[in-house]
Design goal:
Layout (H helix, E strand, L loop, with lengths): L7 E6 L9 E2 L7 E6 L16 E4 L5 H12 L10 E5 L3 E4 H14 L3 E6 L18 E3 L9 E3 H7 L12 H13 L4 E11 L16 H19 L7 H11 L8 H6 L1 H16 L2
Parallel strand pairs: 1-3, 1-5, 2-6, 3-4, 7-10
Antiparallel strand pairs: 5-9, 6-10, 7-9, 8-10
Helix pairs in contact: 3-4, 4-5, 4-6
Length: about 280
């Protein structure tokens, strides 16, 4: 089986160190490559061994600005509509070309709209629900994190213009993208556990204050409010529909960078279900 269309993979780069340092080039890619130099230094000669199809150099602070710059750049490419998915990797994520090819194959097979690879157990991470679960190919999810997301190109083009005031990229994954997916009717989101990526560096957004004077938590809250406004303005579906109630529940859930007691209590039932499933599986070995 072949992909419905080629995809575009973006890998960020600091403009100085070895480009694609953590991408193991074990096979030829089935996708086109764009290297994003977030230093703005434009040292394209250092990319001779990589030979990307596209190269963009613009000084940015974090993922939100990278997404804005990517969107602006891609609008100038006439053939951009030919791509099925766009995937965005940071420069500290270890994965192989073969695994990216496999990831795209599975996404096409499962007709996913938004997805990400699972995270290895020895990674630095923020969200435990995305850690690899052996034995699963994909597991549906309400959202995927902005660390290494994949989007259908039309979804990316629809949400990116709303990120112009968001530097960190936080909040667009939890709130904005699911809202846009709902409005477009493309809500098939999953974590692909058949493929793993390792995050090599500690998460750096944290309590950092960006040039707009805001922390990532403040940007999450702004994105939450904006997404709710967007939903109320654009929604054309009955407010009684299950899909509407689901997106409303997502937008009403606060994300303040901490795990609440209620969240912990809500995990008790799934915990016992998973333990029971594990014991049953073990009894057949």
């Amino acid at each position: 089986m072949t992909h419905s269309a080629k995809s575009l993979i973006v890998v960020t780069w600091d403009g100085e160190t070895t480009p694609l340092k953590y991408i193991y080039r074990d096979t030829l890619p089935t996708f086109d490559l764009l290297v994003f130099d977030y230093s703005g230094k434009g040292n394209k000669l250092l990319l001779n061994s990589v030979a990307p199809i596209y190269f963009l150099s613009e000084q940015t602070e974090c993922k939100g600005q990278i997404i804005q710059a990517l969107h602006n750049y891609l609008q100038s490419i006439d053939s951009i509509s030919k791509y099925q998915y766009i995937g965005i990797f940071d420069d500290d994520q270890y994965i192989s070309m073969e695994d990216i090819n496999k990831l795209l194959f599975i996404a096409d097979l499962e007709q996913l709209d938004v997805f990400q690879p699972s995270i290895t157990h020895d990674s630095y991470y923020d969200n435990r629900q995305f850690i690899n679960k052996p034995g699963y190919q994909i597991i549906p999810s309400n959202w995927v994190e902005v660390m290494c997301p994949f989007y259908r190109m039309d979804i990316f083009n629809a949400f990116a213009p709303h990120c112009k005031d968001n530097i960190s990229g936080t909040g667009l994954d939890i709130y904005l993208v699911p809202t846009i997916q709902y409005l477009l009717g493309k809500t098939h989101t999953a974590v692909v556990h058949a493929v793993q990526v390792k995050h090599m560096r500690p998460v750096r957004t944290g309590k950092r204050i960006f040039s707009n004077g805001k922390t990532s938590i403040q940007e999450i809250q702004i994105m939450q409010a904006m997404s709710m406004t967007l939903l109320l303005q654009k929604n054309k579906v009955s407010t009684e529909s299950p899909a509407y109630q689901k997106i409303l529940a997502i937008l009403n859930k606060d994300s303040k960078g901490e795990i609440t007691l209620l969240d912990k209590l809500n995990r008790i039932v799934p915990l016992f279900k998973n333990l029971y499933r594990m014991l049953v599986d073990s009894s057949y070995r």
